[in-house]
Amino acid sequence: MGIGYGASDEQLEKQIGCVKYTLFCFNIVAWIISTALFALTVWLRAEPGFNDWLKILEAQSFYIGVYVLIGISIVMMAVSFLGCLSALMENTLALFVFVGTQVFGFISIVAGSAVLMQFSTMHSSLQPLLNVSLRRFVSTSEYTYSNYVLTMIQENIGCCGASGPWDYLDLRQPLPSSCRDVVSGNAFFNGCVDELTWFFEGKTGWIVALAMTLGLLNVICAVMSFVLVQAVKKEEEQASNYRR
């Protein structure tokens, strides 16, 4: 009977070690991804030219999701160390706290990513904001500042008006040279709302993908932590029975 118990106890100890060190490795990966997410979101927020465009177009709501992801990436960097320590110490209370932080992290990451996508993708809340700003610039394109903004956007992005060249006709404004392709001389067909949205999508696509990868790691770490807690409790019960 003693031999059977010893073999079972040894097997449980090996399982605990396997889960513990796997969880440790996942936390190291989570820390790396959190650091990368923090770096990318701060870079996006601090990029001078990009920030200027959003100010001009009055579309700074774009940054709400960025702020959420910056905050959660900082929290997740700290939490990853908690996960490493709680796993190595096999402390059930610390592991339960860690599970709670992973659930919070997952919810925050999904929320932040959803908000960021809501202000950076096609058919999102970003497009009406861009449409209002661009149509205002088109309607006042005879003024120097409006003409400067439209020229900067249309030449750099390769677009015309808010929805297309017909915006100038609707608002009774002459079609500027910045609306035309320098090679063919034809007016750009796509409006600047769609072109700018695709431009913003390119900026945020990698950030959202990285954030969702971190969210997946949160789920994996939470499940593994819970499994480790149950295994540690079972080991403690077996040790207590053995002493009796």
Could you describe the 3D structure shown?
- By secondary structure, the protein is mostly helical.
- It has one domain (21-69, 94-235): Orthogonal Bundle (Cd81 Antigen, Extracellular Domain, Chain: A).
- It is 79% helix and 0% strand.
- It contains eight helices and no strands.
- Helix 1 (2-46) packs antiparallel against helix 3, helix 4 runs antiparallel to helix 8 and helix 5 runs antiparallel to helix 8.
- The longest helix is centred in the C-terminal third of the chain and has 52 residues, at 192-243.
- The chain crosses the membrane at residues 21-44, 64-88, 95-119, 206-229.
- One of its GO terms (biological process) is smooth septate junction assembly.
- This is Tetraspanin.
Short précis:
The protein has 244 residues and is mainly alpha-helical.
Q: Would you list the SSEs in sequence order as H and E?
A: HHHHHHHH
Q: Main beta sheet: strand number and arrangement?
A: none
Structural class: mainly alpha
CATH architecture: Orthogonal Bundle
Report the end-to-end length measured between terminal Cα atoms.
Answer: 14 Å
Q: Please identify the top-level CATH class.
A: Mainly Alpha
Coarse morphology: rod-shaped
| Count of helix runs | 8
Q: What is the residue-mean pLDDT, rounded to a whole number?
A: 89
Radius of gyration: 27 Å
Tally of domains: 1
Stretches where pLDDT is under 50 for at least 5 consecutive residues are: none
CATH level-4 homologous superfamily: Tetraspanin
The level of helicity is over 70%
